[in-house]
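Can't attach files on this board, so I'm pasting raw text. These are the components:
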Amino acid sequence: MTSARPGTALVALLAVAILAGCGSGSHGGLTTPTVAPARTFTLGDFKPSTPIIAGRTTLISFTIRTPSGAPLTAYKSCCEPHAGVDLIIVRSDDSHVQYDDTDSGPNGRITQPVVFPAPGRYRIVVDAYPKQSGPNSPFNFQLFKWVTVRGAYHPQPLPAYRSTQVVDGYRFQIQGHPHLHAIQANFLTIHVTDPSGHKVVFTTWRGAYAHAIFFRAHSLDYFHTHVCSPHSRYCFSVLGGARVTGSSQAPGVLKVGVLLPAPGTWRLFLLTYMHGHILTAPFTLSAR
Amino acid sequence: MTRARRVGVAVAVAGVALALPAAASAHAYLIKTVPAASVILNTPPASVQLTYDEAVEPRFAIVSVTDVAAHSETTGPVTRSPSNPDTLVVPLKRVGEGWYLVYWRAISVDGHPVQGAFTFAVGPNAGPAPEFAIPHIAGSATSTPLVILKWLAFLTTMAAIGLLVLRALVAQPLVRRVEGTTLRALELAFGIAAVLGLIAIPAYLEEATAIDSLRSFWSFGSVVPLWRVTAFGRGYVDIEICFALFCVAAAVAIWTDRPEREHRPTAAVLALSGTLAAAAATLVLPGAVGHAGQTSPRGVAVLLDWLHLLSGSVWVGGLIGLLVLWRSLPVATRTAGLVVCVPRFSNTAFVSVMILLGTGVGASVLHLPVLSALWLTSYGKVILIKAGILLAAMALASVNLLRTKPGLSRAEVGEASARLLRRLVAGEAVLVAGAILAASILSSLAPPPPAFAEEGSALARVGPGKVAATVTRAGYALQVLVAPNKAAGPNSFGLRLTRGGKPVTGANVTLSFAMLDMEMPTQEYQLTETSPGIYTRKAPALVMVGHWALSFSITPKGGQPFTALVVDRAGG
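---
Top answer:
Structure tokens for the assembled complex are below.
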């Protein structure tokens, strides 16, 4: 064997080693994987895209897009109050709330005329109840959108807790002083009398005697529950894996189930339907 | 203590050592996460913490936390928790409301990468759970460059050891019996193999470490310090040290040997003893740090692996040595020289091949949970390929043994037999080198986990994608429902149980999950009857993409319990 052959073999091995080493790329640091954006429900083609003017009717419109990108067109219709799409608008200082039940067009486009009362930022909550296509499709979900109404924003301070609120002569009174705790089911008993002092006989509106809509101060975290007749099948609200149900078993008394997700100051907007009018009774509550 | 008693004690100690179970499981697995998988938190977490069953190395770990738009939410590198060495921590930005995907990849102490993903949400109004695309870094233990380097490391190391054995124990009498011959060419061949081995072992370790830590081969400054971080890396550093000692001892043994003398000098005997001990130590380490070291009973598995490598070394090194001798011996003395060496090598090679065969079968029995794994898994298929190559090499070896070897001694056919020998030995050497390549691939693949044994009794193979498959068992019809059948998120699992077309109510149904592609702990969930005869549960059980054994344990009300197994493939 000549001395040239071992040298050739050594060079060949080094060449293989070099080529082998090239396989791992030429970057110097730890490579993190490329993560693609997730597919999820989104608010598509939200309008208006132009500035909103306070006091004028503004047409809010959007499409709920499914994870596949197709518009969501099928909603629950069987089980009020858990049906369709609810549109809830709250001002950032918790001074105003507006609750609308919407209909979607055949192409899934949802359109709703809204009047924003004053300049400021508003959080729009789209609470959707899609028709369930399988065991893993969501029961409901919320999508959120912030909009700004043009003009100087003058936030109103959050009022302190008052057990009684009078709206259009109707008196809403929380029984006792509530001691609410986050992530725990609590109940508020609220007595309602009409302007003449009689106990109110409640009317079902959007599947419930009353809608209790909660927004946390500053963060505007959202929670929505219902008060229904004792025989209502679908009257509950879900937080995580827990359910809470409110009921009214006697005229003039609402037992509101509360399951607040976080401690802090919360604003409760209690919506009831009285003789063709929606009454909104606002309370300031504290949860520990 | 008498000699017999000493031998008895030694045998007993060896028996206990051989029966020792594997010290560690095959791979690291995740046992706890903070935040928990699929949880909705009300306050954003400051960090993500992952606790494994062993202390994985943070410098090799990736923990990516991304929002639905795939924006990274981490603010610093992965570190080890000061309070728990098994926990990795990655700090986060102050994340807002929404869903987040945590993808993690870590290197087990045995050197194998493991990975997984889970989601969590920050609420209270996190929105609907999105469909995350789970990233996956392909298992790189079988990448071509790595396998080539591993093959080179094994081939050169085994060839060097085999050449030394041939030089020192088989061909040594040649110089005395055939005048004018030397062993210089064999010594040179040994030297080349040794140098190549000393280069190939660290080159393989560098490439393996670079791949595991997702760095470049050429980032020596950052990769070399990581060599000794895993047990695998430490093992290969030890192999390099042992092999270097072997090379030094072998050089001394060759230098002190006087083959022209009838008896070896004492110095040569001592040097040769040290050389063989170093060779034995070098060859025991790959098994100890590889699959054999993690297979129960550990002692038996490592012993089988060691004998396998030892016999393979003697064979491949001897074949290369014979070719070198054939080329280096002068034509006039070639046949005479081969007459001295070939019969001695044939006897050694025969024993080696028998050991190789026996230990190979033994190791397969230990590594394969069921016989069907031989043709159903990549690991088993490579064993079959390796066995096929070895059988072909043995066929050539048998021709040499039965025809060429006797022919060398006969004057009329001696020359022709020598030529035939060269061709057959060359073919045999190529085949054995091919078998070593197959072994390099084999040792880079994870053996099938014990749960694979369950796969044979599966009533159906389902997935990827949504599952609604009906199987029958013990007179019952079972419709298995899995949706969306995607890893790293909550899936809903259901069983529609009917008998004679009527729903079976009031049954007790539990569902256990066993990962089939790698060793992981089994999870078990109780299913709730949500409507008559339909038992469901939502669970984040499919933590990885791959094959899962879904085993339903069903106890009908007033009926005999039975189980039904379905193999599901979860997608990403």
